[in-house]
Structure to design on (197 residues):
């Protein structure tokens, strides 16, 4: 339970991060953040620990059971941190919407691979602009050739994503219903980016 995800909002109630419940409790206790309930009320540690559990996820303490917060708001941080999108397997999958960029199928995540458009054996680099999501069958069919040599066509040219890591919150499969009111801005931004592509 202490490793479950908690959405972190800045002081303006914009989502900026996802942290663990363990870290969220520490932040609330040290008055760096306040817990947010379903009615958008905020609570310090003492106030939060006095709320009834009512079947919500909770942890047992010497004070009794305490609800696990699902959303916290920072008390002194206004900005949305600007970060570059880190190149990683999951971010390439997210950029390509978990879709094979050759045949257009959406296989189970375990059946997805990363494919170098220009193979490494031909000098291709591991960059945003040269790596795409592909299914196992297309990857095998392409082998160590270029798409043209393998008679495959890319659905779209790979590029560095323009979204921030916050968009991962919008596409996270484990996002919670308590997060939905706060992710509307991120979801809207994702739709805007998708429409521009």
């Amino acid at each position: 339970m202490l490793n479950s995800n908690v959405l972190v909002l800045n002081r303006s109630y914009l989502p900026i991060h996802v942290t663990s419940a363990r870290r969220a409790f520490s932040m609330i206790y040290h008055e760096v953040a306040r817990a947010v309930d379903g009615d958008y009320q905020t609570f310090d540690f003492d106030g939060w620990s006095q709320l009834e559990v009512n079947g919500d996820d909770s942890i047992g303490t010497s004070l009794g059971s305490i609800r696990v917060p699902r959303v916290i708001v920072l008390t002194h941080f206004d900005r949305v941190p600007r970060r570059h999108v880190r190149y990683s397997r999951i971010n390439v999958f997210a950029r390509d919407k978990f879709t094979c960029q050759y045949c257009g199928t959406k296989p189970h995540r375990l059946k997805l691979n990363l494919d170098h458009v220009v193979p490494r054996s031909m000098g291709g680099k591991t960059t945003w602009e040269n790596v795409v999501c592909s299914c196992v069958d297309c990857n095998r069919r392409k082998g160590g050739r270029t798409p043209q040599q393998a008679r495959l066509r890319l659905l779209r040219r790979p590029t560095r994503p323009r979204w921030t890591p916050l968009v991962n919150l919008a596409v996270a499969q484990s996002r919670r219903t308590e997060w939905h009111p706060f992710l509307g801005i991120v979801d809207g931004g994702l739709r805007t980016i998708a429409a521009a592509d």
